[in-house]
From TrEMBL:
Pfam families: F-box, FBA_1. Residues 21-66 form the F-box domain. SUPFAM superfamilies: F-box domain. Signal peptide: none annotated. It comes from the Eukaryota. It comes from Linum tenue. InterPro entries: F-box-assoc_dom_typ1, F-box-assoc_interact_dom, F-box-like_dom_sf, F-box_dom, SCF_F-box_component. The lineage of its organism: Eukaryota, Viridiplantae, Streptophyta, Embryophyta, Tracheophyta. NCBIfam families: F_box_assoc_1. This is F-box domain-containing protein.
Length: 410
């Protein structure tokens, strides 16, 4: 009965992958890895049940890292997550139709996607209902509750609460930072005088800890944070009274510290402008928006080096778009000739920065207004490490028991 199931599993695969599944013992191990590393995560998950060697290969940490690295480099197995009252996914290769995202926090709408890193997505319903979800594997980790606590037990109410999701590459740890502000009746209208709390959740330790050294002015932010390397970046709202205008700050997930980001020497300083941040090909970028009619995109080629800022192009006109309230780059096309832009939280366009030509992307069944997040399929596990180890030992015990039984009856 296993053979028909095997043929059904291989019917949609490229011939090399099908050959591996049908005759695994005849294919060299390194060839098997080279073939499997190119397959979608969802296909690999189906093949885990076909044999123990394939399961061990697909579950190995080395293969998981290799598969993710290949997907990021080749821009394969990518999707967009569209954020509205509901969440949607759109396949990057087709950019055709939006599909409602099923996830474990679904309560009829209102779930917030806080960010995506290496195939993991941070989700929020409330400060007490947070999760990290792998869309491809459909595995989830509910985060332990950590109350938002006013400092010193003061009678303050919670003001703004912001989150940022990122990766600590030094410690191989996914982290979620939560920044909360508090206001009292006496300063409810004073946006410059408030108390604050910052906590960081560690995926590896499955616990929260409080960050004590926090400059007060970094806690407000506009929009979502942008992850570049191991640091989250965002722009503060305009605060003329504090001399903070177009101020960019970062939070380093390794050092767990805040810092200011140096900016380029903008060319049209006679015009009023505001800036937003993005990420392009792994580099920090800044969109300098001049009076909502022209946007310059700058790229920092070497992180932290002010002199490495370079103006990539200027967007002055896109058909059916009269003003630029918001413009952000998402990803460069696989052929390297066009850039996918999110414009005004309502449309996607392919933009050729060499010719200045733009073409609209029409997505069926999607929301009218949205924020977009790039997502890549991966096999990164989200289970509690202790539970993973327990399951591994159970499998090994079961395998030993099976061999012992076969030997006894042999």
């Amino acid at each position: 009965m296993a053979e028909p199931e095997l043929h059904r599993s291989t019917s949609t695969l490229p011939p090399p992958a099908a050959a591996v599944l049908l005759r695994p013992s005849r294919i060299p191990h390194d060839v098997v890895i080279d073939i499997f590393r190119q397959l979608p995560a969802k296909s690999l998950l189906r093949f885990r049940s076909l044999s123990k060697p394939l399961c061990d290969l697909i579950d190995s940490s080395d293969f998981i890292r290799l598969h993710l690295s290949d997907s990021l480099r080749a821009k394969s197995h990518h999707s967009l997550i569209l954020r509205d009252w509901h969440l949607y996914t759109v396949d990057f290769d087709s950019l055709d139709a939006a599909v409602g995202l099923e996830h474990p926090l679904s309560v009829g709408g209102g779930t917030e996607a806080l960010g995506s890193v290496n195939g993991l997505v941070a989700l929020r319903n409330s400060e007490r209902d947070l999760a990290i979800y792998n869309i491809a594997t459909r595995k989830v980790r509910k985060l332990p509750v950590s109350e938002v606590e006013p400092p010193g037990g003061q009678h303050l109410r919670t003001g703004y609460v912001f989150y940022g999701f990122g990766y600590d590459s030094v410690n191989d740890d996914y982290k979620l930072v939560r920044m909360a502000t508090f206001v009292g009746d006496e300063n409810a209208c004073d946006t410059y005088n408030y108390d604050y709390e910052v906590k960081v959740y560690s995926f590896r330790s499955n616990s929260w800890k409080k960050i004590m050294d926090v400059p007060f002015y970094v806690l407000h932010r506009r929009g979502y944070g942008v992850l570049v390397g191991s640091a989250l970046h965002w722009v503060l709202p305009q605060r003329a009274m504090l001399g903070l205008k177009n101020y960019i700050v970062s939070f380093d997930f390794v050092a767990e510290k805040f810092d200011e980001v140096t900016q380029p020497e903008y060319e049209n300083k006679d015009l009023s402008y505001q800036v937003d941040v993005g990420v392009l090909e792994g580099n920090l970028c800044v969109m300098c928006n001049y009076e909502h009619v022209c946007v310059d995109l700058w790229v920092m080629k070497e992180y932290g080096v002010k002199e490495s800022w370079s103006r990539m192009f200027s967007v002055q006109k896109i058909r059916n778009t009269t003003t630029f309230g918001f413009l952000r780059p998402l990803i460069i096309a696989k052929d390297g000739n066009e850039l996918l832009l999110e414009v005004n939280d309502e449309k996607l366009v392919w933009y050729d920065w060499k010719t200045g030509k733009a073409r609209s992307v029409r997505i069926r069944d999607g929301p009218k207004s949205f924020g977009a997040v790039m997502y890549v399929e991966s096999l990164i596990p989200v289970d509690d490490p202790d539970e993973v180890e327990r399951q591994r030992r159970l499998r090994e015990d079961a395998e030993r028991e099976k061999l012992r039984s076969e030997n006894n009856y042999g």
